[in-house]
Amino acid sequence: MVRGYFLTRLIKVKLLNNKIVEYIDVVDRNDEFVKTIDRANHMDDEIVRVTGFFILNKEDKVLLQLRSVNKKRYPNRWDCTGGGHVESGEDYLVSAQRELFEEAGIETELKFLDKVFFELDDGRKHFNAYFIGTFDGDIKIDLNEVSQVRAFSKQELREMVKDESKFHPECVYGLKKYVLDVTQR
Hints:
Blueprint: H1 5-12, E1 13-16, E2 19-27, E3 33-38, E4 47-56, E5 62-67, E6 78-79, E7 82-85, H2 92-104, E8 111-119, E9 125-134, E10 146-152, H3 154-160, H4 169-179
Parallel strand pairs: 4-9
Antiparallel strand pairs: 1-2, 2-3, 2-4, 4-5, 4-7, 5-6, 5-10, 8-9
């Protein structure tokens, strides 16, 4: 599934002055391609594509990650099991599978749930494609990005989402709408 992505990624990611350059696509409000940019030069008012996914274990608990206190945006908040920017030319599913493997060392089938347009409070704009999958096994985390990964029962999460400030906004939306069956306000 993901093993061949490394070769593809070498084509899409360049090394410039000993710095990795990640290319992402800017899209319009219909999710149609506008241009390709260096992610480091992304302006907050440009719409880009991202993914978010939820992994459930055999006990039907939801794995969430606590973002590192060093993260620029939404530090120390609970977030989806993983996700990230869709690289230029990638589709949402390939991006989600790549991110899942990069962030947690997991290879599993992901089911598409929905794609939603977000305008975040900090000015950023995303099309976020949500996915869900199952996995039981060892998870590897990058401590520069994530403080911890924890499995929550759906009942625990129903209580936790009452205080949305504990979560990344795109995560709490996805939890309520697709995982917990809690109506959005």
